[in-house]
Amino acid sequence: MSTQNQSEEARTAPVTPAGDENALPADIAELSYEAARDQLVEVVRRLESGQGGLEDSIGLWERGEMLARRCQQWLDGARERLEDAVAARREDGADSGER
């Protein structure tokens, strides 16, 4: 595949999460970045309110950890895509300079 096609693909390909999605429960693994972030904000709000008991708080904390991991997967995937696009652009520039 040519560098130009790789660069074009990088601009049009959707951002996908990086990492092993199977490590998370299906309901979390299927979340978009925004949905996971919004749920994480809600978990933090509930934990900070101090309304629940110990068991509820532990459950919320565990869910928050998984939601944070899902957000990180999305951010890592976006970073990889950006790095690929930058590398492809540099290659395009190097190819143009050789002509």
Helix content: over 70%
- Count of all domains: 1
The parts where pLDDT drops under 50 for at least 5 residues are none
Order of helices and strands: HHHH
Briefly note the structural class of the backbone: mainly alpha
Q: Give the integer mean of the pLDDT values.
A: 84
Count of runs of 4 or more consecutive helical residues: 4
Q: How much strand content do the residues show?
A: under 5%
Oligomer: single chain
The major pleated sheet works out as: none
Cα-atom radius of gyration: 19 Å
Question: What overall geometry do the principal axes of the alpha carbons give?
Answer: elongated
Number of strands: 0
Give the distance, in angstroms, between the N- and C-terminal Cα atoms.
19 Å
How would you sum up this structure in a few lines?
This protein has 99 residues and is mainly alpha-helical. The chain is 77% helix and 0% strand.
Write the layout of secondary structure elements.
Blueprint: H1 3-12, H2 26-29, H3 33-49, H4 54-98
Helix pairs in contact: 1-4, 3-4
Structural overview:
With 99 residues, the protein is mostly helical. The protein has one domain. The chain has helices at residues 3-12, 26-29, 33-49, 54-98. Helix 1 packs antiparallel against helix 4 and helix 3 (33-49) packs antiparallel against helix 4. The longest helix is centred in the last third of the chain and has 45 residues, at 54-98. The model has no long low-confidence stretch (mean pLDDT 84).
